[in-house]
Amino acid sequence: MANNYLIKKKTKKDLLSNLEKNLPAMPSEQREEVMEKDIQDDYEYSRATYRNLVDKSNEAMNSLIDLAMDSEHPRAFEVLSNMMKNTSEMTDKLLDLQGKMKKMKEDTSKSEGSKTTNNVFVGSTDELQRFLSSKKPMKNVTEEQ
Question: Global pTM?
Answer without folding.
Answer: 0.53
